[in-house]
Inverse folding.
């Protein structure tokens, strides 16, 4: 039995990552699980990767990690993601790239906690509806039959879905109690909040495997510093380039 800090979608946001780790430390968390997207969008990819390594976090790959290390292309990226990831490819340190290359795309922790990024077998899948959760539940049961919790990222929204024995899924409130007899898909939210139009709060969760409970956290951080570094470092697309990228998408095949 342990306390786990569960996080993901860091996207090179060092200020948000530090805020999350400080909050988890204050709650006595020593085990860190990360569902990927360590890099992308912001300027501190190397620092975030180094911090997770130092903390001994168990980390899987996200689609931004795969694109940054050239294992995926830009085809399914938005304009701002493509621009920032092109910059990340140019600036990512060799040590960071080599570490990312060692990470798995999925992971089972302690026999019952599965980590995936955007889907059980497709890192680009958005799991935002009960129907998509149901489809992934069948895949998860086939790959990790003993899993009772599946943490996922990619969509950046805190969510809890409960799946019954027939793989029918329903969304629950974040404060809902969990049963050991059911399967749950849980998105703990995103560490990076720079893309969000509402308040900039870093998100994560604390899993108590003894009490079988999940606490969702939303934490303030220095978003202005993150944005200033990203702009100065060339990670923010300009309106003109945004229009050019859109035009190129329309005129050229993928």
């Amino acid at each position: 039995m342990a306390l786990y800090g569960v996080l993901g979608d860091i996207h090179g946001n060092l200020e948000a990552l530090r805020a999350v780790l400080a909050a988890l430390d204050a709650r006595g968390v020593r085990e860190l699980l990360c569902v990927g997207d360590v890099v992308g969008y912001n300027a501190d990819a190397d620092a975030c990767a180094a911090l997770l390594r130092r903390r001994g976090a168990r980390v899987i790959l996200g689609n931004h990690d795969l694109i940054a290390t050239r294992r995926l292309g830009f085809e399914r990226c938005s304009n701002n993601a493509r621009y920032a990831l092109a910059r990340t490819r140019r600036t990512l340190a060799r040590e960071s790239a080599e570490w990312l290359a060692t990470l798995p795309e999925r992971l089972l922790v302690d026999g019952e906690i599965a980590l995936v990024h955007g889907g059980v077998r497709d890192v680009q899948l958005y799991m935002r509806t009960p129907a998509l959760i149901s489809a992934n539940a069948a895949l998860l049961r086939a790959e990790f039959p003993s899993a009772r919790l599946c943490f996922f990222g990619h969509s950046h929204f805190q969510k809890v879905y409960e799946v019954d024995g027939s793989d029918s899924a329903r969304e629950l409130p974040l404060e809902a109690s969990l049963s050991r007899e059911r399967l749950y898909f849980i998105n703990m939210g995103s560490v990076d909040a720079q893309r969000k139009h509402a308040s900039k709060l870093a998100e994560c969760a604390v899993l108590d495997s003894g009490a079988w409970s999940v606490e969702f956290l939303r934490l303030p951080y220095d978003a202005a510093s993150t944005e200033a570094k990203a702009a100065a470092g060339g990670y923010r697309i300009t309106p003109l380039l945004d229009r050019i990228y859109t035009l190129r998408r329309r005129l050229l095949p993928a």
